[in-house]
Amino acid sequence: MEAKTPRLGRPARLSREQIVEAALGCNLRTVTMRDIAERLGVSHSALYRWVNNRDELLDLVGEVVVERILPTAEPTADTWRQWLSDLAWRMHDQFLAVPGYAAHVAMPHRHNPHAFGRLHDRVVSAFRLAGVSDDMAEQSWHIFGLGVVQWLGAQQMGHDFGPDAPRFDLFLDVLLRGLPAQEPGS
């Protein structure tokens, strides 16, 4: 077995995992790279050696959150609706646990293509298992994602719905009973 050559210079004080964990403790709607550097106790320039900019930071956070919310089991023709309900509740718990994350995701922005691509593919697969066309599965993905994310974003941004605020369990039940999308009149 060949011995490893020691690396010259100081050992790395940072990792992408540390950076993401630091970001998860900040309000993601307002966090700056300087905030993350201060939280980690490193220089602003040291952080940029690991993460190029705020968008890349939010991409890393998105990857971690999507990994946490995706159920490990695959949906089936018998379980697709329960699978989507489980996913929505995981979104509820994880998105609201990270300050500003639901509000960030609910606002127009560029999504991490890798992380949200995985989420998209799994949700579309669930709707296909419900027996709808590829087009209706895509439409259902948009309705499901938009509905859940907008509800969570509104909740996190503190929109005052008054004493009759829609409960997530009721909202989700109505949403899922209406999905998958069908062509009007069919």
Polypeptide structure, described:
GO terms for molecular function: DNA-binding transcription factor activity; transcription cis-regulatory region binding. It holds the Pfam family TetR_N. It comes from Streptomyces aurantiacus. This is HTH tetR-type domain-containing protein. With 186 residues, this protein is mainly α. It has a single domain, classed as Tetracycline Repressor, domain 2. The chain contains nine helices and no strands. About 3% of the residues have low confidence.
Q: How many strand segments?
A: 0
Cα-based radius of gyration, to the nearest Å: 20 Å
Determine the N-to-C terminus distance. Answer: 68 Å
Order of helices and strands: HHHHHHHHH
Q: Could you tell me the strand content as a percent range?
A: under 5%
Q: Largest sheet at a glance?
A: none
